[in-house]
Design a protein that fits this description.
5-stranded antiparallel beta sheet, 47% helix, alpha+beta, 9 strands
């Protein structure tokens, strides 16, 4: 059987026909996509561009004060390796439990949603859980109740029986209902202040300029440290505090809103420190 090579004219005609068929196919596909609601330039771009996986993580809108807020879950279309990489990057950036949908805890929880037995995500959530608690406390202290609710819900997904969650919800509910203590610090001269929870976690630390005032709400004890104490006025639940008896070298240290036993222990510690000093 003899196979004849195509002549130059036949080959040219074949290439022309192939090009014509390709052009017709492209035109037909463009018309099809246009009929689906895409403009011609969009249709051409859809055909010319390679397919790509686009990740969109929606921010959760703020909810009303005192109501539970839905968490911004990690996207389902991201693979487990991708979520683990995002979680490590978020933790390195100190995005432990915030912002919504862009934090280490939610990324690790997204891993477990796809792979419930993933030991890397389980271990990571257990290790970073304690580091997320101060973020919730700060949200409560600044009266950002929707954010505090959201963060508590994220923690609950990681460890629903953790006792810390009971304390956090109790503190949040008390503050929402108006049962929180109120601390106000007003500067008559430039002063340095530090406000911390009784466990040592800092709520606020700043230079307070003359004429500035800061108010804090808390359902638990607060440790207050004041520098240049002569230039600061403090009210606790509306009562003006006399700072002179707590002052040492222009520094005042206070333990406020604490049970009596804790207050006595704090006073004894300050007394012993005064003797040693």
């Amino acid at each position: 059987m003899n196979i004849r090579a195509p002549s130059h004219i036949e080959w040219k005609s074949f290439r022309t026909s192939a090009a014509l068929r390709s052009a017709l196919a492209l035109t037909g596909m463009t018309l099809l996509l246009t009929g689906c609601g895409m403009r011609p330039n969009q249709a051409t771009a859809a055909l010319a561009s390679p397919s790509a996986s686009t990740t969109r993580i929606a921010h959760t809108p703020a909810n009303t004060v005192g109501t539970r807020q839905q968490t911004g879950n990690a996207p389902e279309n991201v693979s487990v390796p991708g979520l683990l990489t995002a979680a490590r990057a978020a933790y390195a950036a100190k995005n432990v439990v915030a912002p919504a949908g862009h934090n280490a805890m939610e990324y690790y929880e997204g891993v477990l949603a796809q792979d419930p037995g993933n030991s890397v995500a389980r271990d990571a959530l257990r290790e970073i859980f304690p580091f997320a608690i101060p973020y919730v406390e700060h949200a409560i202290a600044r009266n950002d109740f929707p954010e505090a609710n959201r963060e508590i819900d994220v923690l609950a997904k990681a460890d629903p029986t953790n006792y810390s969650l009971i304390l956090l919800r109790s503190r949040l509910d008390a503050q929402v209902s108006g049962d929180a203590h109120v601390l106000t610090v007003t500067a008559t001269a430039d002063s340095w202040i530090q406000i911390a929870a009784v466990d040592g976690n800092t709520v606020d630390a700043r230079m307070l300029r003359a004429g500035e005032s800061r108010t804090y709400h808390s359902t638990g004890p607060l440790r207050v440290t004041l520098g240049n104490a002569d230039g600061v006025a403090v009210t606790s639940d509306g009562q003006r505090l006399e700072l002179g008896q707590h002052q040492r070298n222009q520094v005042v240290r206070l333990l406020l809103f604490a049970p009596k036993a804790l207050t006595r222990a704090s006073r004894r510690t300050q007394y012993l420190e005064g003797i040693r000093g």
